[in-house]
UniProtKB/TrEMBL annotation:
Domain ABC transporter: 24-249
CDD domains documented for this protein: ABC_TM1139_LivF_branched
Keywords per UniProt: Amino-acid transport, ATP-binding, Nucleotide-binding, Transport
Biased composition (Basic and acidic residues): 258-279
Annotated GO MF terms: ATP binding; ATP hydrolysis activity; branched-chain amino acid transmembrane transporter activity
Name of the protein this chain belongs to: Branched-chain amino acid transport ATP-binding protein LivF
Gene source species: Serinicoccus hydrothermalis
Family: Belongs to the ABC transporter superfamily.
Length: 279
């Protein structure tokens, strides 16, 4: 496939497969926070298996796209989960339909124990996969009585991932899971996500292109709040000119070099969660 070339106009939206419908279907998604437009026009599909990567430079609206899917910020457009229209639904009903969410900055309940953090994530009517969680994260079982706020950043990320994996979800929305982690922990998180993708499909926001290369089957790229590229992830990463133009890095590179310097448009939504929305 020849990668789509970014222009001032939208690239053609991904077509539905004739054989397999996407579990998450988004068309013409726009979103706003406090009167500021943070997503302009996003089209994407998440296949019922594997990992779909949502990529782009800092500040293009990746985190805001995930929040718009969840109904955490004002939105318009089409958002369907396995054929169910999510746009008119509040966030708690959307989550009950089977969407797991791993936010960018973990958002553990610092004053509660690890075990209580997991128990709070239990969804009524869902199977609770403690066997899977403790198989993936045996350390969480050992530290069950420890306050989550005293854990290291990597351990808190384990808690955040475990909460999403605890329930029977149709799709997982995972935002920057390796952000700020040491290389060894990045590899461990990547391995966990590979296991998780066998349980439920994942829409993954990730700046580390090596992680994307290891995990993603499909890639959607945003520029200025708009989706401008859809296609196989490996083909996109192999096109050095295209990755340089859309991401500002070479395809064989790692994280976005602007990661610590750009002001994210998602900071407009800071009042909606306690995280600082840097992408």
């Amino acid at each position: 496939m020849t990668p789509a070339q970014p222009t001032g106009d939208l690239t053609e939206a991904p077509a539905r497969s004739e054989d397999v419908d996407p579990v998450l279907h988004v068309r013409g998604l726009s979103a706003h926070v406090a009167g500021q437009q943070v997503v302009e026009h996003v089209d994407l599909d998440v296949a019922p298996v594997g990992v779909t990567a949502l990529l782009g430079r800092n500040g293009v609206g990746k985190t805001s796209t995930i929040k718009a899917v969840l109904g955490l910020i004002g939105r318009a457009g089409e958002v369907e989960l396995a054929g169910t229209d999510l746009v008119p639904l509040p966030t708690h009903q959307i989550v009950r339909l089977g969407i797991g969410y791993v936010p960018e900055d973990r958002e553990v309940f610092a004053g509660l124990t690890v075990t209580d953090n997991l128990r709070l994530a239990e969804r009524r009517g869902s199977e609770h996969r403690y066997d899977l969680v403790y198989d993936l994260f045996p350390e969480l079982k050992q530290r069950g009585a420890q306050a989550a706020g005293t854990l290291s950043g990597g351990q808190q990320q384990m808690v955040s991932l475990a909460r999403a994996l605890l329930n029977d979800n149709q799709v997982l929305l995972v935002d920057e899971p390796t952000k700020g982690l040491a290389p060894k922990l990045v590899q461990e998180v990547s391995q966990v996500l590979a296991r998780a993708a066998q349980v439920a499909p994942i829409l993954l926001v990730e700046q580390n292109l090596q992680v994307v290369r290891e995990l993603a089957h499909h890639a959607v790229v945003l520029t200025d709040g708009r989706s401008v590229h859809h296609g196989p992830a490996q083909e996109f990463l192999a096109d050095d000119a295209l990755t340089q133009r859309l991401l500002g890095v070479h395809g064989e590179g790692g994280s976005d070099p602007t990661e610590d310097h750009d002001q994210d448009r998602d900071q407009a939504g800071a009042g909606h969660t306690r995280e600082e929305h840097t992408e």
